[in-house]
Amino acid sequence: MTEPILTVAGVSKTYDSGTVALQPTDLAINRGEIFALLGPNGAGKTTLINIICGIVTPSSGTITVDGHDAIREMRQARRRIGLVPQELHVDMFETVLATVTFSRRLFGRSGHSDYIEQVLRDLSLWDKRKAKIMELSGGMKRRVLIAKALAHEPEILFLDEPTAGVDVALRRDMWKLVHKLRAGGTTIILTTHYIEEAEEMADRVGVINQGKLLLVDDKDALMQKLGKREMDITLSEPMADIPAALSEWDVSLAEDGRRLRYVFDATAERTGIPSLLRKLADLGIGFKDLETSKSSLEDIFVDLVADKVAA
Predict the structure, then answer these.
(1) For residues 96 and 131, is the Cβ–Cβ distance under 8 A?
(2) pLDDT tens, position by position, 101-155
(3) Is the confidence at residue 266, as pLDDT, over 80?
(4) What whole-number distance in Å separates Cα of residue 14 and Cα of residue 50?
(5) Which keywords does the record carry (predicted)?
(6) Is 110 exposed, middle or buried (CB count within 10 Å of its CB: 0-12, 13-18, 19+)?
(7) Can you tell me the distance from the alpha carbon of 194 to that of 191, in angstroms, rounded to the nearest whole number?
(8) How far is it, in rounded angstroms, from Cα 112 to Cα 98?
(9) Dihedral pair phi/psi, residue 237, rounded to 5°
(10) Which residue from 5, 12, 79, 92 has the fewest beta carbons nearer than 10 Å?
(11) Res 301: pLDDT
(12) How is domain 228-294 classified at the architecture level of CATH?
């Protein structure tokens, strides 16, 4: 088993006001994986990323980036990291090429590079390389942030809500680039509100809420363990309400009365489906069709956060 490229141990953040932004957190990121960190606004996602990137000082804990202590060896650790922040912080009067080149030189790399040209081409920015940042659209400015983060060829790329509020074309280009970077060995860590993207892209998923990392698991294993299935039963005749005899099953009735929905645990030894169908037959309730579907990662996330809050 390869050693993780990034290790977070007991890292927390409490501000002078007493606000706890991040509870003690342990996390290990494997080299070359795509890791998605999911959580609502204010959950602590950005705080964790900013601590790892050296923007925020942790209240406790240690961070190791590719063998380097991120606090004692900040320069060596930071040059291995690229960060695409949520907010745009660039000189609006500089050109695209100058902005990206400056970022590359900050990390001690040569300013004249075929690599920069390739990054700009991958992000559809090469034709805009001489344009000033202020002349670009919002989507193009977001592309510049990505190019800046990649300018010094980092081994780890943080994407903090990278596609929030951007156009479909940028989102498509963004994920195409992520696949290409990952194929080249870059480790990708992203936060996103677009849970379907995490479901499609990530190898592992972490769920964070109220400053606490609730769980980390392989995406497929998470969905297998926590995923529920739904069975829609299309009735032969509409039903006014659910008979009391069906109370032992988790069923609901569609507004038009023509469809029963049964939610069950696919991993359970007994799903309850055969007994439910037998009960429907006993009650003289006919049906025309059955259809089952898995819950999405979003369903799991919502249920998990709700359960933890209730606890």
Answers:
(1) yes
(2) 999 998 888 877 789 999 999 888 999 999 999 999 888 888 899 899 999 999 9
(3) no
(4) 14
(5) ATP-binding, Nucleotide-binding, Transport
(6) exposed
(7) 9
(8) 11
(9) -130, 145
(10) 92
(11) 67
(12) 2-Layer Sandwich (3.30)
In single-letter form, the type of residue at position 237 comes to E
User: What whole-number distance in Å separates Cα of residue 198 and Cα of residue 297?
Assistant: 8
| Pairing verdict, β 251-253 and 212-218 | unpaired
The DSSP line for the chain is -PPPSEEEEEEEEE-TTS-EEEEEEEEEE-TT-EEEEE--TTSSHHHHHHHHTTSS--SEEEEEETTEETTTTHHHHHTTEEEE-SS--S-TTSBHHHHHHHHHHHTT--SS-HHHHHHHHHTT-GGGTTSBGGGS-HHHHHHHHHHHHHTT--SEEEEESTTTT--HHHHHHHHHHHHHHHHTT-EEEEE-S-HHHHHHH-SEEEEEETTEEEEEEEHHHHHHHH-EEEEEEEESS--SS--GGGTTS-EEE-TTSSEEEEEEETTSS--SHHHHHHHHHHTT--EEEEEEEEPPHHHHHHHHHHHHHH-
Q: Which residue has the tokens 């005899």?
A: 245
18 dihedral zone (left: phi>0; alpha: psi -120 to 50; beta): left
Residues of the chain with CATH 3.40.50.300: 6-223
The count of other CB atoms within 10 Å of the CB of residue 198 is: 24
Confidence band of 227 (pLDDT split at 50, 70, 90): low
Q: How far is CA 273 from the centre of its chain?
A: 34
Distance of CA 291 to the CA centre of its chain: 29
For residue 66, what are its two tokens? 């590719």
Residues of the chain with CATH 3.30.70.1560: 228-294
Which residues, at least 6 apart from 16, have a Cβ–Cβ distance to it below 8 Å?
none
- Among 216, 223, 218, 292, residue whose Cα is nearest residue 261: 292
Task: Give CATH superfamily name and number for 6-223.
Answer: P-loop containing nucleotide triphosphate hydrolases (3.40.50.300)
- Taking only Cα atoms into account, the Rg of the chain, rounded to an integer number of angstroms, comes to 24
CB 83 within 8 A of CB 48: no
